[in-house]
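Could someone model 6-O-phosphono-alpha-D-glucopyranose with this protein?
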Amino acid sequence: MAGDYDLVVVANRLPVDRVEEPDGSTSWRRSPGGLVTALEPVMRREDGAWVGWAGTPGDPPEPFDAEGVRCVPIGLSAEEVQEYYEGFSNGTLWPLYHDVIVAPGYHRSWWEAYVRVNERFAEAAAEQAAEGATVWVQDYQLQLVPRMLRRRRPDLSIGFFNHIPFPPFEIFAQLPWRKAIIDGLLGADLVGFQRAADANNFTRACRRASNLPARSGRIRLDAEGGREVRAASFPISIDYKALDELAQREDVAARAAEIRRDLGNPEFLLLGVDRLDYTKGILHRLKAFEELLDDGRTDVGEVALVQVATPSRERVEQYVQLRQDVEVTVGRINGTHATIAHTAVHYLHHSYGREEMAALFLAADVMLVTALRDGMNLVAKEYVASRHDERGVLVLSEFTGAADELGQALMINPHDIDGLKDAVVRAMRMSPREQARRMRALRRRVADHDVQRWAASFLEALEEHHGQAAGRAS
Ligand code: ADP
Ligand code: G6P
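Reply:
Sure, complex below.
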C-alpha cells in the first residue's frame, strides 16, 4: 500500500538521536557526521519523510517531527546494532571503502544481519512513499535497499547517494558479497558518488564483478529489458548561506575572541575538527605538530593546537584503539612541551553546538584537514564558509573529495610528515594578502556549489533519467 510522501529519504540515521538522560527521561540530540549536516537543511525545505534509526537499540519510537522534518524511526535490536551497524557497516564496509587503512572483517553473520536490516528499511520506505514518489537512499549502510525497494514498488523513482568513497575494483574485489552489493545498488535509477573517480570505480566494478555492459556512466541490464542505470558524481556540500550568516553574528565573533583569550592569546591558533575516526589522519597531524615543537621551528609561546574529536562508534575495536593512541600522544606532547602558562594541544572529546563550531572556525588561523581518505570532508567547506573576514589558511589532504574542488587550499599528503610540517609553517607565516586571495577563491567555490545546489542537481538528474527510462519502456 502506498503512503503519503512524494519524497522519502532513507538513511541509517535520523537527523536526531534519542538520548536516555540520567533521570530516566528521553531527549533528542543532533546526530553526528557529514550526512546529517548536508541533508538536514535540504529536508527542512521539503515536505518529505526521513526514514532512519534513532541511534539506540530497542523498539522504535513513534514517528515524530523534529525541526520541520517528519522522522520515521526504524528499530534495531542490540544484536543488530552489533552485527549490522558496528559489524558489517563499520567493521567491513567502512575500512574496505577507505583504502583498507585498517583490515576489514568478513563475517557471514554480519552479512546476514545487513541483509535483514536492509529489508526492514526498504519495507518502511515502501510504506511511506506515495504512488510514483521519489525515494532517495543514502550511504553504504543501505546498499541493498534500492533493489529491495524496486521489487516492492516498481512505480518509484529510486536514487542512491554514496557519501563515502567507492574503492578501486582491486580492493572492492575482496568482498565476498561484492556481486550482491552491486545488484543491490543497481536497483536504483541513478547512483551518485562524491567524485568522478568513485563513479568510475563503480562502473568498472559492474563490468568486472558482474560482467555487465557499462560505459560512460551507464550500466545496461539486459535481464531487466535493457533498463539503464546511470552512475555519476555529485559532490556534496554545506548550507553556505546559513553558516556565513551565523559566523557574521556579533555574539559568534565575541565568542571567537573569547576563545583566543582563554587560550592565552597565541599568535597562531591551529584547529582540527573530526569525528574520532582512523580515516581522519589525527595521529599524522599530531606527529607533525610534535616534531615542529621538537625541532624548535615553533613553540608553545607562539602556537596552540585545538583538536576537537567527536566521539564516534565507540564500541568498535579500531576506534577504541585510536582513542587510546590519540590520548597517549596528546599526553606525551603536553608532558614534553606545555608550560604552566601554555598548553600545546587542547584536546576536546565532545560535540558542540553550531554557534560554538562557527566561533572555533572564526578563531583559528590554520585549519588542519589531514584525512588519509575521506569521501568529501565538510569541515573544510565549513571553515571556508565561516571566514567572511577572508583570513585563515586551509591545509587540506589531497585524499579528500574536497581537494577536487578547493584548489586554493595548501594541499598536503598526510603520509609525508616533512611536507605536512612545511605546509603548517607556510600557513602560519602566510601574508594576509595571500590569505585573502586564496580565501576569496575558496569562498566563491563553496558559495556557488552549496548543498541546495547538490540536492537539486541530484534530484533533477534522477527525474530526467527516470523519465527517459519510462519513455523507453512505454
Ligand atoms: P564525517 O561525515 O566523516 O564525519 P565531515 O567532515 O564530512 O566528516 O562532516 C562532519 C560534520 O560533523 C561537520 O558538519 C562537522 O562540523 C560536524 N562535527 C564534527 N565534530 C563536531 C563536534 N565536536 N561537534 C559538533 N559538530 C561536529
Ligand atoms: C559519515 C557517514 C555517515 C554517518 C556519519 C556518522 O558521515 O558517511 O553515514 O552517519 O559518518 O557516523 P555514525 O556511524 O555515527 O552514523
